[in-house]
UniProtKB/TrEMBL annotation:
It comes from Microvirga arabica. PANTHER family: EPIMERASE-RELATED (PTHR43574). This is NAD-dependent epimerase/dehydratase family protein. The keyword Membrane does not apply. Residues 4-247 form the NAD-dependent epimerase/dehydratase domain. Keywords: NAD. The keyword NAD applies. Pfam families: Epimerase.
Length: 343
């Protein structure tokens, strides 16, 4: 039986990836700091461990797996990445994880490893025009990411590719572009734009106002999780090392993204633009290389994925409301103790 290891298996993309690998007949081990938040893991074996510790990496990679998928990282949405408050943790934690994993793979003679990089590594100077951002894979240099998260991703891309040259490995590198879908983080500060907007719309009543960082004219493309998983597995099993974009070419403004979600929800809402971290002005996947090397590129319309995602997040919002109402209904009465009287 073929074996696979998914690092970061408790996260959004990782948990979906485990499920697909199991569907394909793999024996799968998952590793993460936590189990998946919204469903039972499909993994045959799940290790809860901190991959910043090299001992844990060696314990997780205790055999020669056929495929290793490295998704574990310290990451989040704009509210986490672009404030500057988490830069040291982002760079230290993610770089340490990648160094430990590669060391453990070499020890066990693991050859085929997938690494999930990010479009955040592209130069900020190529993403100032919201209508014509440049994200061709060969546009990465001269390097100038707009965040320390992007710098760490760029370093780690190069790290994995050096192991191909020096250790005869078959590492594959993909640059993800804004992956979204059900079972992704949807509140708490680490959620990305589609989830945040779906949550705000789901919570709002007809005619309400929702808040949005910036003027909403910044552009992005968003890729539904199923297409991400398909591209990831195809690249891992290909003879192309990358880096290559895995993303959608359907670019929208964040204002238009909100309008699509409102239409799905059947609500007419106002948008109040407020100051906040927004990242680059424009970003869109450029898919010429993936079409050439894999004979495939994501093609599902954004609205289809948003409909599935909104339905799921609206259900989460209602469940949270129900739990909060139950807590209020069943909460114990508050009793004030009398003032202490000296005896």
């Amino acid at each position: 039986m073929r074996t696979a290891l998914v690092l970061g298996a408790g996260g959004f993309i990782g948990s979906h990836l485990v499920r697909e690998l199991k569907r394909q007949g793999f024996w799968v081990r998952g590793v993460d700091l936590k189990l998946p938040d919204f469903s039972e893991t499909a993994a045959d074996d799940f290790i809860v461990a901190d991959l910043r510790d090299p001992y844990n990496c060696r314990a997780a990679i205790d055999r020669r797996f056929d495929e290793v998928y490295q998704l574990a990282a310290d990451m989040g949405g704009a509210g986490y990445i672009f404030t500057g408050e988490n830069d040291a943790n982002i760079m230290h934690n993610s770089a340490t994880i990648n160094l430990n994993i590669l060391d453990a793979c070499v020890r066990r003679n693991v050859k085929r490893v997938f690494y999930s990089s990010s479009a955040c590594m592209y130069p900020a100077y190529n993403q100032e025009d919201p209508d014509q951002p440049v994200t061709r894979e060969d546009s990465a240099y001269p390097a100038a990411p707009d965040s320390e998260y992007g710098w760490e991703k760029l370093f780690s891309e190069r790290l994995y590719l050096t192991y191909n040259r020096n250790y005869d490995m078959q590492c594959r590198v993909a640059r993800y572009h804004n992956i979204f879908g059900p079972e992704g983080t949807w509140d708490g500060g680490k959620e990305k734009a589609p989830a945040a907007i779906c949550r705000k719309v789901a919570k709002a009543k007809e005619g309400d106002e929702i808040e949005m960082w910036g003027d909403g004219m910044q552009t992005r493309s968003f890729l539904y999780i199923d297409q991400c998983i398909k591209g990831t597995i195809m690249l891992t099993r290909s003879d192309f090392e990358g880096p290559v974009n895995i993303g959608s070419e359907e670019m929208v403004t964040i204002n238009h993204l909100a309008e699509i979600v409102m239409t799905i929800a059947g609500k007419s809402l106002k948008i109040r633009h407020i100051p906040g971290p927004v990242g680059v002005r424009g970003r869109n996947s450029h898919n010429e290389l993936i079409r050439k090397r894999l004979g495939w590129a994501p093609d599902e319309p954004l609205e289809i994925g948003l409909r599935r995602t909104y339905t799921w997040i609206a259900e989460q919002v209602e469940r949270t409301r129900g739990r909060n109402a139950a807590l209020r209904h069943h909460s114990a009465p508050v009793v004030a103790l009398p003032d202490r009287v000296a005896s």
